[in-house]
Fold these 3 entries.
Entry 1:
Amino acid sequence: MTDIFYPFQWIADKLTYDVIGINPETHLAASVNFIIYDVLKIFFLLSVMIFAISYIRTYITPEKTRKVLGGKKGLRYHLVASLIGTVSPFCSCSSVPLFIGFVEAGVPLGVTFSFLITSPLVNEAAVAVLWATLGFKATAIYVVSGVVLGVFGGYLIGVLKLEKYVEEFVYKIKVGNAASEPENLSVKERAGAAFEGVKEIVGKIWIYVIVGVSIGGIFHGYAPEGILAKYAGEGNLFAVPIAVILGVPLYSNVMGMIPIVESLIGKGLPIGTSLAFLMSVTAVSFPEMVILKKVLKNELIAVFVSIVALSIIFTGYLFNILL
């Protein structure tokens, strides 16, 4: 991984020490070098990852997803729904129309939640930034955890039979079958759509990445070694649930938070606590709950949040023990 990103480190070293002329032994040099290197690395992986996933997305439509999952029950369909969620073009902003469409198409409530949990939790932008900052192992853990959380959370909601806590009007809506078949696109057209996806997503999140990397760079250069290990390390029994609680209102800043977390890990924050924080930012964000309130009653929202939050906390503790 180091060899792949060596050119970015070379550029960061050149700019920091030769062009800008900062003394390598200073805290400022450590911060500036970190910021330049991470910005280059993240935007490179971000562009590659978004292009690849956006290309795959040209084969996926909400109608196809509902067709695959409609009326299907069983743990394997929760897994299918969760896996589709990892490459779906949907975020919490589209939760309400997606939820209505899935219910109208006969997709079981639990399977629907397996999709809705994983779709915002595992997205290509977060995967790219996480890979660039924390490496492949942490990224693999993040993706697998997201899928498992989607399967477990959706399955448990299905077992509890909570359909009565869905607003009644949802069952009466007919969303129709417009554009049920995707257009047959050429390779060039799909590549063009993928390139547009890169421009659109990077255009929306670039500022969060730069701000996040800059804050992370300050921590990297100036925060005392081991300070987080002292206050949020393995000795603090409540570090993981505190991280989850803090992550809930930060959904819109997930891209910027990953580089910050990278720097904090370097200063002693356990990786399980860090991943729990990231998963809470994307899976149980306050904005998504506000949106879902339009179609779900408070009881179901409370169950949904509790299941996912407890699953994330368990995952955080587990990874702190294993890693």
Note: Residues 187-222 form the longest helix (36 residues).
Entry 2:
Amino acid sequence: MKMVTRPTSAAPAPVPSSPRRVLPLFVLSSLVIVLIAVILTSVSFGSVSVPISTIVQILLNGTTLFHFPVTWDASLDVIILQVRLPVVLGAVLVGAALAVAGTLFQGMLRNPLADPYLMGTSSGAALGATIAFVLPFDTVYGSLFPLTPVLAFVGALLTVLFVYALARSGGQTPVIMLLLAGVVVNAILTACQTLILNLWPSNDFGRILGLYNWLSGGIAIVGWESLAVVAGIVLFGLLLAFWLANRLDVFALGEEAAAHLGLHVERTKFLIVIVASLLTAAAVSISGLVGFVGLVTPHCMRLLLGPRHRTLLPASALGGAIFLTLADMLARVLLAPTVIPVGVFTALVGAPFFLFLLRSSKREYKW
């Protein structure tokens, strides 16, 4: 009796596994080390180059815990501690704030194109700066706070609250209404800004140039006092953002699924909008309109670490700080003594790099 053997079916082809994500602790530790190196390098560059070893000794002597012998020109202490370090730390704060704000908006809206200026923050800040430009006085509360950053901060926050109020209907705030309200308000405030500049012409070329530089983006720090105020706001906002990390992960399932899991969707959405807007307003008050940091950095960190916000948020803060600090340094030294607006530099350098990164890893990228 002849036995009939059935042909054995071919073994199924192995399913390609998704690329293994880099260990979060390794990435975060590496980013911290890179940020420290970038800060020291950025402080060392300028009209007078200062060795990094000298910078480290000056900084350690400034803590009063160390007492290295002063073998350098005493004027370097003033240059490092009073001129360069506040600007570099300002770039660190702005980069971290914009990157985290972009991560918050992208996570809440589930939209890869969301950035910190999505809800009209940029136009509100620009209108505030323009009003400061036409007013006859320059400071608030004596000489402690320049008028431009104060009005830019207030304008950015008020605009976001107005957009949120417009989009809210029936106790809910649909995402599409937020986006549309942000676009409309942005157009109106931009028109108001243009109208003000035409109705109040100024022959003061210095003030016109100052407004142009602010709109183009650039770290403007007038002293440690204003930096301390911004640092307090940014650090508070970052802590709140990290506290919202798990809620952002739930948002990835969709608003309906998040509600079924017990998340108070509208309250959480409002908190995310407020925290992201607070970070953005604090950043633009000392940097002007610096684009691309809040859009690019979250995507780059998502490629490395995946979408989990508990690691994505701190990585984005560190990555944004590195990106903007490097951009600010290169904008100052590449064509010295001419200074390139850092907002222009981030767009010219960041956009091609981001396109290359997405194109080379498009099969691995998961939103």
Note: The longest strand covers residues 139-140.
Entry 3:
Amino acid sequence: MTEPEPTVGYVGLNHHHAEPYLATLAELPVSVTAACEPDESFDVDGVDGLGDVPIYADPVDLFDDEAPDVVWISLSNRDTPAVIEAAVERGIDVYTEKPAARTAAELEALLETVSGAEATVGVSYTWRGHPAARKLRDLAATGFFGDVRSVDARFIASQLAYRDADHFLFESAASRGGILQWLGIHWIDLLPWILGDDIVRVNASTTYGTPAVDVEDGAVVQFELASGAIGSLQCGYYLREGRYDTEISITGMDGRVSWDPMGDYFGFDDETTVELESCRDEYASAPRRYLTYDYDSTPGYGGSYGFDFMQQFLDARVSEDVPVPATLEDALTVLRVLDAAYESAETDEWVPVDGHEEMTEMTL
């Protein structure tokens, strides 16, 4: 007998990622049976891909009336923790938009509830699902880089003049931060995941160059990894409409890689190339190599690799043999780095990441 598809309650339609998520869910073996949007001024009828489902104003009412198997959340950072908690307390599995809260303290309060519940919670750090990112992680695990010395990353996007700057994403009360908390965090999560090497302290500066927007539109973060490697991250809303400029570069004494994850324009219907270079004897015949990845034409958030990431989450909720691709603990790690970065921007000093104070003292 075929098992019924899990039911999904979608919470947070007034979000840039709601329609892409719904497009992905339409391709996954699930059924979206209800939705919720707390902002009653938002026109839910204009959301593509939602279908004819009951719409709620209160997530708890949706949980109690519909009892979905999974809740998909794309609310503000401010509102997300309480909704995760309400779902988990009812045994409902959760897939939530990153970063899942404004600060680490807001997630720490959730961990006891989540750890004591049977519900599965996943966080949408979908770049972990990209085959190029997984290749770099495999290379790091096999010692390709040797002694890592330098890590550089960039996430530059189009200016706020081309975006809906009135949205809660760009309000400090709802989001806490701007470009660093919305886009820069992708690389703050991905680089330590690739290298298996935590960020232990940071030195950051931020700029607030967009009038009437109270979150930063630019940031530069220097960071030190637990291994002693030094890294940098630059991010900002600087470019013309639709343009992106992204880069991940890792340099070690034995090997280096360079990768442009996003490409010139947002989308996942082109190709991306990783450049590798090695000093090792086994690479002597071709020290520099290129790995090119073509994207399948898959609709939704993150295209085919986003689909694979979300499918892994769905598999993890029913099988202990499948790991959750990004957990609430992973989200907490990222938020601790963000906490340190915003504190550093205010104090103009190096700030240790919570949990790594002793290690930081040893390097000073």
Note: The longest strand covers residues 148-158.
